[in-house]
Amino acid sequence: MQIKIHRGAHEIGGSCVEVESHGSRIVLDVGKPLWAEWNEQVPLPRVAGLADGSDPSLAGLLISHPHMDHYGLIDQVDARVRLFIGKEAAVLLKAAELFSSAGIELHPAGYLSDRVPLQIGAFTVTPFLVDHSGFDSYSLLIEAEGRRLFYSGDFRGHGRKASLFKRLLDQPPLPIDVLLCEGTHIRREQARDEEPRSELDVELSLAKTMSETTGAACVISSAQNIDRLVTVYRASKRTGRTLVTDLYTATLAHEIARPTIPQPGFPDYKVYIPNRQRVLVKQSGEFNRLEFIRDCRVFPEWLLTNRNKVTLLMPSSTVPELLRAHVLHDGAVIWSLWPGYLREPSGARMRRTLEEAGVPFVLDHASGHASVADLQLLAAALLPGRVVPIHTEAGDRFDEYFADVEVHGDGEWWEV
Ligand SMILES: [Zn+2]
Questions:
Q1: 8 Cα: distance to centroid of ligand 1 (angstroms)
Q2: Which domains are seen in the chain, by residue range?
Q3: Cβ density class 336-351: b for 16+ within 10 Å, e for less
Q4: Tens digit of each residue's pLDDT (9 = 90 or more) over 84-142
Q5: Does the pTM exceed 0.90?
Q6: Ligand 1 centre and the CA of 32: distance in Å?
Q7: If you measure from the C-alpha of residue 66 to the centroid of ligand 1, how many angstroms do you get, rounded to a whole number?
């Protein structure tokens, strides 16, 4: 079995890996690099058959999780290439279609599901459901020719599904010849590895902010971060507030339809449709999209009257209209996203607007990626013959944290 990292050896995101055995090939992820603008066309990595679907040796494309930096170039992949992704991940991406350029309808040939092996070409692939900020995310064990490769995908050990990480440590699929391991938190200039903030930490500190706020607590997050939805809902409940989400978040939760995920129909869940989303629904003419929120839809007047007992979970673009409707009077805005976005013009603009309006602004976030200590725990459990870095800006520093590191550049074939 041989393997080539097409992209990801020297950067976080844009991951794409090709694996070959006796002329049979599979591709792991086909991500859009994080450096690309949202509307920028980035060419597909040069994998035979990926763009034209004409090479029968290409047995399949596997998407580890529904984040752009892992599937974002899929619109250039020929429809005949057999696609594998988590079932709920596919549901989430389809449900996102109206609201986000990240949404897409896929037609998988099969689904990744936890610890259910798949035979794809010459490979046996066993997915392991993992804890990550992306929904329905998997690590992948790939076996061929008696060799065993473990692709970590993106994962963490401090989210709402931390038990999955613990289970992997307790029941590792041994033996492993190569661990292809994400290293988001192994940095070029390594700050000291602080204990990561967990989703529970965020839940507790959000609850504290909510209890100290007289008016509306408005949490800015990504609709696709379902773990964070649960966290915000739980914090909201702790403080006796009603959760009000936008239509995008509500649609995802409704379509995923897991009884454990807060969604319309829950007694303390309401939906406010921001102007931008109202226009999208109108333009699409798909008014049936509003059926499921008929009994829990609220309007600005309701938000204004009830502002002392609501938590809003909204995209940042909603802040100006909430300010105009005075809903944030006596309230607070909590940024529950990667703080790096605040350095972008739109983030800076929103901060300035809030400052002028005298609305307090708080940061409250937990990373979607494993701490260095958790990466080391994974390696200690899997005992791989070699650790190969991916999804990192500092693969050359892996040897400070792991034994038997082998660094391979983009575009280089090597043996597992
Ligand atoms: Zn990633």
A1: 9
A2: 2-190+368-415 (3.60.15.10), 199-363 (3.40.50.10710)
A3: bbeeeebeeeebeebb
A4: 999 999 999 999 999 999 999 999 999 999 999 999 999 999 999 999 999 999 999 99
A5: yes
A6: 10
A7: 9
